[in-house]
Amino acid sequence: MRMSVCILAMAAAAAVMPGGAQAAEIKVLTAGAFKQVLLALLLDFEKQSGHTVRVENDTVGAVSKRIEAGEIFDLAVLTPGAIDKLAGKFVPGSRMNLARVGIGVVVKEGSPKPDISSVAAFKQALLTANSIAYIDPAAGGSSGIYVAGLLDRLGIAGQVKGKSKLIAGGAVAEHIAKGEAELGIHQISEILPVKGVTLVGPLPADIQSYTTYAGAIGANVRAGEAAKELLRTLASPAAASVLRAKGMEPA
Question: What is the CA radius of gyration of the chain?
């Protein structure tokens, strides 16, 4: 009996951090493009704070639907527009812009890199490719929605429709690595972590699109102070080098 009490006391002490703060599990919902940044920063954050972090990711649209349906979370990383549309689901005034990322072109490792140095060259690369992969706009992914509109503006949507592979979610580059499509278009931070592919480069400046990602605290937060601490870490100058290494830049 005495030993059981001792063990319980030790467990309780372990759950309390220096200064009397309570260790917490932070549930984070994030758009896929920001996932790699989160994972890179979590090890140090958990070690220094004593908190643990559970990350769940999907497209902006899919995460927004989960939040709208009432899912409980502590911190969400989405586009500023998505957060604003779900204003009642977040603590007012908690939104912080964290990073932005551009869109790039990817091919399988060892494959010839197409010329995408100008809008005309990029357009020709799409027309020449045997197959093209990008996020399905219907899935709510920021890059997929932009690419679909871009193909329309370039006047080639009809010409590439039959050879387009629409990806419901996840990393387009993984499908390129498997040989399921010749050329992929996705956010650069989603391309760099994937093995077996080569980043050809960013879209030409005239047609480049940057997606900004912001973090905000959930209105029904369970680990409020811990979530605020994590959000501050994600927005700190120390996170800037991680952002750049993952293909993003500070917002």
Answer: 21
